[in-house]
Amino acid sequence: MNKQQNVIVIGAGLSGSLLALRLAQRGYRVMVYEMRPDLRKVDISAGRSINLAFSNRGNKAMKLVGLEDKVKSLCIPMHGRMIHDQDGNTFQSNYSGRDQEYIYSVSRGDLNALLLDEAEQHENVNIHFNKKCKSVDFEKTTALFKDYQTKTEFIEDADVIIATDGAGSALRRSYFLGKKFLFSFSQDYLSYGYKELSILPTENGGYQTHKNALHIWPRGNFMLIALPNLNGSFTVTLFLSYSEGEYNFDNLNTPELVELFFEKEFPDALAIMPNLTDDFFNNPTAALGTVKCSPWHYKGNTLLMGDAAHAIVPFYGQGMNAAFEDVVELDAVLDKHEGEWEQIFKTYEKQRKKDTDAIADLAIDNFLEMRDHVAHPIFQEKRKIEMALEKQFPTQYASKYSLVTFNENIGYQEAMLRGRAQDKAILSLLKNNSITSSEDLSSVLKKVQQETENILNLS
Ligand code: FAD
Fold first, then answer.
1. How does pLDDT run across 70-82, given as a tens digit for each residue?
2. 11 CB less than 6 Å from ligand 1?
3. In a domain, 13, yes or no
């Protein structure tokens, strides 16, 4: 096949810059159009998930493009969740019983900049900033752009157009408005929003609380989390209802009320957040939603990837990882069907959609788990058992969290089905006192495996 085909990639965020690099490595000529200015020259990160949890599925994509080591140098290991109770007591719950399994905190800006650098250095890639895609003619395989600098509009065409332009995708809107085929689309918002806050470094650039953990202050109906940054600071995110409960984003409308809320609910966090109210009133409150749609592609002309195809709520720390994994999956399909775009897009979507639907549902589950269940004794008991099983039987047992986060060799759907069955099995065995944390672990493993298989066979 003629490898010098032209591909337009819309959006130079995390998935677009990675995709451009990979397609260029495969020999395609790639033109990337990004609506915002170049983030390596202008600071545009404020209030927009400054750092992210990065794990195995994302790393698999970095390996594919040869960037594993460079990305690792931007990462801070987080070995587990550090839970903070209302009195300021903490305990750490590791992510896995296997020593080498943990996740990382990475700066969105640094990671995106690295991917842009690597893509741009490739002779097959051209990146154009300040160019917003307004619509896509998916039948003609052309896209209409607005140049923010010259204030003019122009049309570009290519052999294929791939949209990685995030949750508000212009291509997805064109599918929807085009009404040329049956396009299913759902966007479900939580009644919760999020706001980014910060814990600054100490005077000599150190960390004010434990560096190698994802900190969580679970409070039932709301929660605070914090992830470390390389400069000693933490990016803190408050997840809170817009309008329900005693405290919500609507009624926290004065610095005094915000201080009072934190004094009552997060006193140990407040003690290291002297800039709380400035952050609170300077940073936006943003919405959290899930986007599902189908089909992702139109014939062999256009395709949606990353958040443009499947935006999810952030509670499993998998949105970016899934978007990166999209590139790995597409790459594998390209190996088999190179040159036959319609077949490539069809096969990719068929293989991938069940998995992105699964991680969307798991992310909602984890919202409930993080804000509420992690503080419950039975959940902590279950975690203890799971950690012990993973430690003693590293090849025979992996919790749902481990299957989703650390096993990049199975899809999200498989991880979800097995993981949910295991959760159900352990909780019911605990409730019936059929297992205890002091029992011989081989007997616990046997019972858990048996109960899990029963549940899987029934479903
Ligand atoms: P985006 O990152 O949204 O990039 C889209 C790009 O397209 C942007 O650069 C945008 O400017 C550009 N663009 C948009 N429209 C146009 C247009 N019309 N024309 C041209 N360019 C356009 N994921 C994790 O894996 N771990 C986490 O810990 C995590 N935490 C998160 C916390 C929060 C609060 C949120 C909101 C998300 C979190 N995510 C996390 C999810 C992650 O941010 C997304 O899944 C990821 O950014 C998706 O990458 P993307 O490239 O598909 O989309």
1. 999 999 999 999 9
2. yes
3. yes
Whether 228 lines ligand 1, by a CB cut-off of 6 Å, is no
Is residue 32 domain-shared with residue 119, that is, in the same domain? Answer: yes
Q: Which atom of ligand 1 is nearest to the CA of 322?
A: 25
Same domain, 353 and 383: no
Whole-Å CA distances, 427 to 299, 315, 386, 434: 46, 21, 11, 10
Ligand 1 neighbourhood includes 110 CB (under 6 angstroms):
no
Both 425 and 305 in a single domain? Answer: no
Please indicate whether residue 49, judged by its CB atom, sits closer than 6 Å to ligand 1. Answer: yes
Same structural domain, 280 and 399: no
Is residue 444 within 6 Å of ligand 1 at its C-beta?
Answer: no
CA 107-112-117 angle, 5° bins = 130
Ligand 1 within 6 A of CB of 111: no
Is residue 280 located within the same domain as residue 335? no
Output the CA 19–ligand 1 centroid distance in Å: 14
Q: Which of 64, 68, 104, 94 is nearest to 402 (CA)?
A: 94
Is 92 inside any structural domain?
Answer: no
Name the residue at shortest CA distance from atom 31 of ligand 1: 314
Q: Domain with 363 in it: what CATH number?
A: 3.50.50.60
Pairing relationship of beta strands 234-241 and 223-228 according to DSSP bridges: antiparallel
Residue 398's pLDDT band (cuts 50, 70, 90): very high
Asked, for residue 438, whether it belongs to a domain, the answer is yes
Distance 458 CA to ligand 1 centre (A): 38
Give the mean model confidence (pLDDT) for residues 267-295.
97
**Please, which pLDDT band fits residue 363 given cuts at 50, 70 and 90?**
very high
Q: How many separate domains does the chain show?
A: 3
Ligand 1 pocket member 35 (CB < 6 A) = yes
Q: Which tens digits make up the pLDDT trace of 7-52?
A: 999 999 999 999 999 999 999 999 999 999 999 998 876 556 689 9
In the reported structure, the alpha carbon of residue 13 is separated from the centroid of ligand 1 by a whole-number distance in angstroms of: 6
Q: Which residue is it, tokens 């650039």? A: 205
| Residues sharing a CB contact under 8 Å with residue 272, sequence separation 6 or more, in sequence order | 199, 208, 209
Q: Which two tokens stand for residue 388?
A: 């012990």
Band of pLDDT at residue 151, cut at 50, 70 and 90: very high
In tens, the pLDDT along 296-327 reads: 999 999 999 999 999 999 999 999 999 999 99
Name the closest-CA residue to atom 46, ligand 1. 320
The conformation of residue 433, written as its DSSP 8-state character, comes to T
